[in-house]
Write a structure and sequence with these properties.
By secondary structure, the protein is mainly β. It has one helix and four strands; from the N terminus they run αββββ. Strands 1-2-3-4 form a four-stranded antiparallel β-sheet.
Amino acid sequence: MELWEAPIAASAHNHGITQDDIYHALRNVIATADDPHNDDVTLFLGPDRSVNLIEIGILGTGDGPLIIHAMNARTQRFQSPKE
């Protein structure tokens, strides 16, 4: 299963991000980061359909990935890779 095919939990819509924008961002990821509060969650940074950056939290479960969080990006969580 690709990330943009993962099921979306109701909690991912708490900040008003639509399903289409979530999947668009996941098809166009530009950075990832570990969630500092939950070792089972990875954060993804990508553009929505209007090219606004959003962050998406994906929980790894025994059944596969579950999208649990989406909101306007807090880009300080994402650092450029070191060369």
